[in-house]
Amino acid sequence: MAEPTPGTQHSITITSLRDEAKINVARILAAAARTDQTERILKRLDALPWTVTRSASAQTAKRLVAELEKKGAVVEVFPPLPTEPQAVRPIAPEVRSEWMSAEEREPAEPPGAGDVPIIDLEPLTLGGILDRGFTLCRNYFWKLFAIAVIPLVVTLGVLLGAGLILLLAGLTSWAALGEKSVYFLIIMGIAILIPVAIILILVTYLAQGALIYAVSQVYLGRKIVIRDAYGFVFDRLGRFILTTILFGLASFATLIFAMFLGSLLFFGFREMTGSGLWSIPIWLLLLMIPTYAIPKWFLFDKVVIIEDQAYVDALRRSWELVSGKADATWLKWYWLRLVVLFHVFFFIVISVKLLVLPISIILTAPLPETLKFVGIGLSNLVSTFGDVVWGLYVSVCLVIFYYDIRIRKEGFDLQMLAGLNRQQE
Questions:
Q1: Residue 305, C-beta contacts closer than 8 angstroms, at least 6 positions apart
Q2: For residue 209, is it within any domain?
Q3: ∠ CA(340), CA(343), CA(345), 5° rounding?
Q4: DSSP element (H, E) containing 51
Q5: Burial of 287 (0-12, 13-18, 19+ CB in 10 A)
Q6: Same domain, 48 and 169
Q7: Structural domain count of the chain
Q8: Residues 149 and 262 in one domain
Q9: If you ran DSSP here, which 8-state letter would residue 92 be given?
Q10: Are residues 375 and 259 in the same domain?
Q11: pTM above 0.85, yes or no
Q12: Least confident span in 90-104, 174-188, 293-307, 358-372
């Protein structure tokens, strides 16, 4: 039988367990995944076979298979691992403690660890990404909603506070300066606007990063703690904002470049043919420059928050992730998958808007003067709720898409499960 070629990805499946091996295997997987959810994994081991990963390198697969078989698991690998002897780097002492059996150590079970279900990290189809995004939104809606809605609450509070300050300043200045108080209020309004804008920008990016971090945590089988999510992102906030600005500049530059080439072609065709309209078909091709480049940078925010890479490195890393093709059951090009997701999100947004529209119309229907303000307020509240819900779903699906690429291209599922990223060659 032909040996696997270098770079072959292996699928590892636990087919059965020898007597009294289940608890040891479960604790290995729980400790390696750093989720401390032995009971959950025990239930998963009751429904064998279990495909642990479908994208392991030969060296990494050999390490994991050796540890699982040592604890009593019967494992199948496809395609089979090379039969010739290979030097296998031993597991470092500081990592070996994660593979200890029940007799060697008792795993610490943090309070509430069982609240987070185990999620199989495996390659997903388009429907799988959308379905898993819906499942995560449904199971953790209120915590994710709280993270997403915090900037809206802070924005409302800041604007009301700024308005109240201007109102009090206006009343005071009118009594002292009369009509000249208008100039005083303009200057004061400008002075207040700058710190208010800074606060709103900071809170918005904090919430966006905290949402990415929270979805990442729960997708890897960990608990969501709102305070920890904001605290984690706060340390990366400056780099996150600056990288976002860089993304905006890079996107704008691609648009300007395409427009510049289009202008040159327009004037060139006009000189040659007397009409620049002949260049219109080429304009459509030039539009592919920003259409191709901008989506390939679109995962930069996940890279900044999850991988702690910023600036040009984050854009380059996003470009690398979205480049290439996959062995898949749907579209092969990662870039094309992301474009398809954007179109699906567009239809989801339209659907949510259409669901919310009748409610807004009813609330803003002809009402007595005393109730018009209440109706408009309720209509805006319903519309805002709809915007938060679809924005939340889109954010969750994009994080899942990011991990799906890493699972396919880098075997991230096995790295996370086996805890072997510190021993890569």
A1: 209, 212, 213, 216, 233, 236, 240
A2: yes
A3: 110
A4: strand 50-56
A5: middle
A6: no
A7: 2
A8: yes
A9: P
A10: yes
A11: no
A12: 90-104
Which residues are paired to 50 by β-bridges? 14
DSSP letter at 365 equals: S
Q: Which two tokens stand for residue 250?
A: 């890079």
Question: Distance (Å, rounded) from C-alpha 165 to C-alpha 177?
Answer: 17
Contacts of residue 176, defined as CB under 8 A and 6 or more positions apart, other chains included, come to none
pLDDT one-digit tens code per residue, 105-154: 444 433 333 444 445 667 788 888 899 889 888 888 888 888 888 888 88
Q: Indicate whether 244 belongs to any domain.
A: yes
Distance of CA 252 to the CA centre of its chain: 23
17 Cα distance to chain centroid = 36
Could you count the other beta carbons within 10 Å of the beta carbon of residue 107? 16
In terms of residue numbers, what domain contains 51?
10-118
CATH of the domain at 39: 3.30.1390.10
Q: Specify if 161 maps to a domain.
A: yes
Is there a single domain that holds both residue 329 and residue 264? yes
Q: Which amino acid is at 158?
A: V
Distance, CA of 320 to CA of 323 (rounded, Å): 5
Question: What pLDDT, in 10s, does the model give residues 186-195?
Answer: 777 777 778 8
- CA neighbor of 139 nearest in space, from 46, 218, 32: 218
Residues 273 and 353 in one domain: yes
Structural contact between residues 156 and 149, judged by C-beta atoms closer than 8 angstroms: no
Supply 394's token pair.
């889109």
